[in-house]
Design goal:
heterodimer; A: seven-stranded antiparallel beta sheet; six-stranded antiparallel beta sheet; elongated; B: alpha/beta; globular
């Protein structure tokens, strides 16, 4: 009946719509149009009773769709082209949907589209939508592939939730055990635009001040123990040691030689939960000693670098020693490297360095004198510094504009130090962090990005100098105290009057970090750690697949057995058993009783082909029928039935009974 | 189907119905099963729908039934301009008594032949179908009971013929059975061609039973024994239609009861005191054929056969 078909289609199409909606902005318009067109045509056809397109036409359309996707994307591989191809296939499937099986296929495609969406976006924000979409698609499958009248919406919803809930334990087992392979094999493809955010491997005036306008979370930290005091929250990122007069850039990443760092003092133990950045940096507290990321190593300048970019949420457990002493001995060639400056330019800075050296003499004296100058002279801190136009950027900043952001100060200070012959380098990273009172996790945002300087002193190794901190607080322009205040809530304009908004934000952040920590960051390392806690040390992926297969097989078999037991056929009574036995024996005559055949019909069939058996079979059948279908309380009937059954004997020359009914 | 020894119930009533059947069979050649189905339908207090192309003997069967059973008979030819009042009757003002008097329509008869029921408009159709369901007619607030027994034999042309208003599912459900007559085979065709005119034969019919006897038999139908094993089978059949993809909608409980009554009536006409699986199988295609719809596209006239082959006899 057409109305029922329309109803089925509407359910199915609604599910598809929900699954497709998040993909629409990414898909070319013609593909979305195709799906809508197919849906409208199919609905019209169903209500008018038109037939579905024929096989040849569908084949041609499928080939055309494939070609169109190929033309649009130049490939059918990869996430975007794959999704497009799936969507085109979906529109063609809609055209030919009429059977129950077709509705099942449509539901599978819709579920797959939901999964595909997870390949683009795994944030907690989209999760409720995707879960609801999954429930609705399940509901639409229940409604569209159902025989008989549709369920009430409430009942269908309840049934869908129950079905999905039944699948959750198995899904959880698969999630925990499915082998995670480290490396780019599992990494999500970078989607659209520039893949990376956060700190880059070079710094020129203005690069960080762009970054600090972003409120995005860079990473979260949970401390096992007391978090370090605010002044010690320096998260080390790229270290820049080459200067071309304007831009600082990263040097070669030599691994740290053993013994270069000594670790006095107490350790800070914590877990970093990194958001995807597309960069290899693991911003550890200074100085990290142990970490759980297999593919990360420490460079000669004390920063953790991963061998692959952080393309997905990643968790790393670390210990750091804030009081660590680094590189007490500086070899001659490294001293040359860290005092290297362009041969020309910045003459006034060089002159200032010479005068500082003349005034203070020692390296410590020069550092203090330079910092004192930042405090004394009218330097201003601003996010919108004037553009430095000359080729001598350091001179222009130190003597003319005197307005800048952390990168200007760190750069100028380092240039000044190098000019005075003191080994120095620029360190970028993050400074600060805000504790979420609900989750006790620290949130470090892109706006916490910072740059500072390091100088090398004989006898104490590399020392952190933060020239930005030397600027007098009253000289901060724009009322933007991002770099100094610890209370981040005040800085974002929430504060007292917006307590509720602040709490909501923190609650959301707490949930998001749990989602990140327990679900998204479950990679190879976390899996190994978790499994070793279950007593599975060093499982390789074959073992995992084996265990997984066993669990799935056993649980599905148990469930199947339970179903078989639950729906077992009722036990046969004695008369039926005798009857079945005789029927099996009679099958040897070549006349096999069909399961749907009534006893009298069968007896007539046997009698027709084997007249010599007719009287015996007829008597036996009459007794059986009267036992089973008549209102008889004949006590002797069962005995008579058995006797008559025994009487039916087949001569041995008949062939063996064939087991298969014709 | 059964030998005489298998007929434990050999009383006068059954004998007379057997004679009636024999007489009908002498007019409608080669349609023994359809004739027994028609009688079973009548005894199960159901109504009969005969669907086939014109000229295969639908009307003749209805005539023969009426004549052989000794029932009062009315024929209503359904046309597109038929009005409900043409079926149930109309109230007319009478000057003598200064009041309205209800003039009974053709529906007040024991056997009604509603010929080509799907040529009438839905309004006229529903007038008849309401009477079939309620077994009474209400006009101007007055209720008029219909006679007993009340048996409607409706004929219809296949849906795809021009000028038809197909009966909706809900109204098809009012008919206990739908049967087809089909073409006669070569031999019967020859006998029809050589034999006497059917009209002459119909005029010569002798009533073999009467209304009282039929009502007595109707009362006996629900008492025909249906064992637990048989009800298992019947339920398995009904359940199958509800749970399997072959059918769009399953059989209703009403259809299940109808199936049982039809099988009981079939066994009774056969002269047996208990229903056997074969009885259910004999009536099932006629009872479920118009109620089941195979999933996917349109009608499947073999829905009954499909169902029978899918469900084992327990």
């Amino acid at each position: 009946m057409p109305e029922r078909m329309v109803q089925r289609l509407l359910w199915s199409l609604a599910g598809i719509g929900l699954a497709l909606a998040p993909h629409v902005p990414r898909l070319p318009l013609w593909i979305t149009g195709l799906v809508v067109l197919a849906a409208v045509w199919r609905l019209t056809a169903a209500s008018r009773g038109w037939p579905v397109p024929g096989g040849v036409l569908r084949g041609v359309m499928a080939a055309a769709g494939f070609a169109a996707v190929l033309a649009s994307y130049r490939t059918v591989n990869g996430l975007e082209a794959g999704t497009a191809l799936l969507t085109v296939t979906l529109s063609l499937k809609i055209l030919e949907t009429s059977q129950r099986r077709d509705f099942q296929v449509l539901a599978f495609i819709a579920w797959f589209l939901v999964i595909a969406e997870l390949l683009y976006d795994q944030t907690l924000l989209s999760l409720p939508y995707l879960v609801l979409a999954t429930i609705f698609i399940t509901m639409s499958l229940l409604q569209s592939a159902r025989i008989g009248p549709p369920l009430t919406r409430r009942r269908a919803g309840g049934l869908a939730v129950r079905l999905l809930a039944l699948a959750v334990p198995l899904a959880a087992v698969m999630f925990i055990l499915f082998p995670r392979v480290p490396g780019p094999f599992w990494a999500l493809p970078q989607v659209g635009g520039s893949g990376s955010t956060g700190l880059s491997d070079n710094m020129s005036p203005g690069s960080i001040s762009k970054l600090v306008r972003s409120e995005a979370v860079a990473f979260r930290v949970s401390f096992f123990g007391e978090p370090p005091p605010p002044a010690a929250r320096y998260w080390r990122g790229p270290v820049l040691d080459r200067f071309d007069g304007r831009t600082w850039s990263e040097g070669i990443r030599y691994p740290l030689s053993s013994g270069a760092v000594r670790y006095p003092g107490s350790a800070v133990v914590y877990r970093l939960l990194l958001e995807p950045s597309g960069q290899p940096w693991l911003p550890a507290l200074e100085v990290a000693r142990t970490w759980t990321a297999d593919n990360a190593f420490m460079t000669h300048d004390f920063r953790l670098v991963a061998r692959q970019n952080v393309d997905q949420v990643t968790a790393v457990d670390l210990t750091s020693y804030p009081d660590a002493i680094g590189e007490l001995e500086l070899s001659e060639w490294r001293r040359v490297l860290y005092t290297d400056l362009p041969d020309e330019g910045n003459t006034r800075t060089r002159a200032l360095a010479a005068s500082l050296r003349e005034t203070y003499g020692t390296d410590e004296g020069v550092v203090d004198g330079a910092l004192a100058r930042f405090t004394r002279e009218p330097f201003w801190y601003t996010l919108e510094p004037p553009v430095l136009t000359s080729s001598d950027t350091t001179d222009e900043f130190l003597f003319e504009t005197r307005r800048g952001f952390c990168e200007h100060y760190a750069s100028a200070f380092t240039v000044l130090m190098r000019s005075a012959g003191i080994p120095a380098r620029v360190v970028t990273g993050y400074h600060g962090g805000e504790i979420n009172p609900l989750s006790d996790r620290m949130i470090v945002r892109q706006s916490d990005a910072h740059a500072w300087a390091e100088v090398w002193m004989p006898g104490s190794g590399w020392q952190r100098i933060d020239p930005t901190g030397a600027i007098a607080p009253q000289r901060i322009l724009d009322g933007l105290d991002l770099d100094f205040a610890d209370d981040r809530s005040a800085s974002r304009g929430f504060g007292g009057s917006f307590v509720l908004a602040y709490r909501l934000e923190m609650a959301w952040d707490a949930m998001d970090s749990v989602w990140n920590e327990w679900v998204l960051s479950y990679g190879p390392e976390r899996q190994r750690e978790f499994l070793s806690r279950l007593g599975l040390d060093h499982p390789d992926w074959r073992n995992l697949v084996l265990i997984l297969t066993l669990i799935v097989t056993i649980s599905m078999s148990a469930f199947t057995l339970w179903l078989a037991w639950h729906y077992r056929p009722a036990a046969l009574d004695e008369a039926s058993r005798v009857y079945r036995r005789v029927c099996r024996r009679l099958a040897a005559t070549g006349v096999v009783r069909q399961p749907w055949e009534g006893p009298t019909t069968y007896a007539e069939r046997v009698a027709a082909s084997h007249p010599e058996l007719a009287p015996l079979v007829s008597d036996f059948t009459r007794t059986y029928v009267s036992l089973r279908y008549r209102d008889s309380s004949d006590a002797g009937a069962l005995t008579r039935l058995r006797r008559q059954a025994r009487a039916i004997r087949l001569p041995w020359r008949w062939p063996r009974p064939s087991l298969r009914p014709r | 189907m059964h030998a005489a020894a298998d007929r434990p119930l050999a009383d006068a009533d059954l004998e007379r119905i057997g004679k009636a059947a024999a007489q009908i069979n002498s007019i409608i050649l080669g349609k023994r099963d359809q004739v027994q189905l028609s009688l079973s339908c009548l005894l199960a207090r159901g109504h009969l729908l005969i669907e086939d192309i014109p000229g295969v003997g639908k009307t003749t069967l209805a005539h023969a039934l009426a004549g052989s059973l000794g029932l009062s008979y009315q024929r209503i030819q359904f046309t597109s301009d038929l009005l409900p009042a043409d079926v149930v009757g109309v109230s007319v003002f009478e000057r003598d008594t200064n009041s309205f008097r209800f003039h009974r329509g053709p529906v007040f008869a024991q056997l009604i032949l509603a010929d080509e029921v799907n040529r009438a408009t839905p309004k006229a159709q529903s007038a008849l179908l309401e009477a079939m369901e309620e077994r009474q007619v209400t006009a101007d607030g007055e209720t008029h009971a219909l006679p007993e027994p009340f048996f409607v034999v409706a004929t219809q042309n296949p849906d795809n013929q021009i000028g038809t208003f197909p009966l909706p599912e809900s109204q098809l459900d009012r008919f206990l059975m739908r049967i087809h007559l089909g073409y006669p085979d070569q031999e019967l065709e020859r006998r029809l061609l050589q034999g006497e005119d059917r009209r002459t034969l119909l005029a010569a019919l002798e009533p073999m039973s009467d209304a009282d006897m039929l009502v007595r038999l109707q009362d006996r139908v629900p008492q025909v024994h249906a064992s637990g094993a048989l009800l298992d089978y019947l339920q398995a059949l009904v359940t199958f239609t509800r749970e399997h993809a072959e059918f769009d909608t399953g059989l209703s409980p009403r259809a299940g009861i109808g199936l049982l009554r039809a099988a009981q009536a079939w066994a009774l006409v056969d002269g047996r005191e208990a229903v056997e699986p074969e009885d259910v199988q004999a009536v099932l295609p006629a009872v479920v054929g118009h109620r089941l719809r195979a999933a996917g596209t349109g009608h499947r006239d073999d829905a009954g056969a499909l169902l029978l082959e899918a469900v084992p006899v327990p």
